[in-house]
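TA notes. Do not distribute before section.
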Amino acid sequence: QVQLVESGGGLVQAGGSLRLSCAASGSFFSINTVTWYRQAPGKPRELVAAITNDGSTNYADSVKGRFTISRDNVKNTVYLQMNNLKPEDTTVYYCNAGVRVRGGIAYYWGQGTQVTVSS
């Protein structure tokens, strides 16, 4: 079993910063690509940022220059540093990870963490 636990969400004023964490635990060999998504009520899920196991990154245009994704392979944790937050960044953020387990690659989701940016 593999668990992903997100943390770091909260309430912040516009222009502020938060750092989200996505920590993996359980039985696995390695973590491949990890992706942060967000989804507001009634809207489609949006890819925010992704990082591969070799550190290559990809960002949504809406967060480029403001958000930074990084990973600590020793701690099995991926971070999303969010700076200059805007009210439109308010929603629930989820991480998704491709994890190498016995038998192949399996994908897991975290439970989500709420980010609220006040104007």
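Switch to the second chain here.
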Amino acid sequence: QVQLVESGGGLVQPGGSLRLSCAASGFTFSSYAMSWYRQAPGKERELVASITSIGGATNYADSGEGRFAISRDNAKNMVYLQMNSLKPEDTAVYYCNAVKQILFVTYEYWGQGTQVTVSS
């Protein structure tokens, strides 16, 4: 059974930091690219950051560039999102995503999300 379980969300003041974690199970984690997405109320889900399966190359949305850092531990089947200098506009539900494409077939999994609220 495939599972992606996010944790680490919560309420934080502007300028604060949070570290989100995503625990993966039920699939070959190391062969999947991993990403964090977020969805704010009334908005579409958007990519925050991604990391490749091999080599660990990272990519960030402009909104998180310089403030967020994605990392993965293939030995522990974990992916993390370190978020610093948080702003109220970072408030959203953050989702963990796993994706792999083999030929013309895409395998994709989502977590249930963790709420991040940035407010004073």
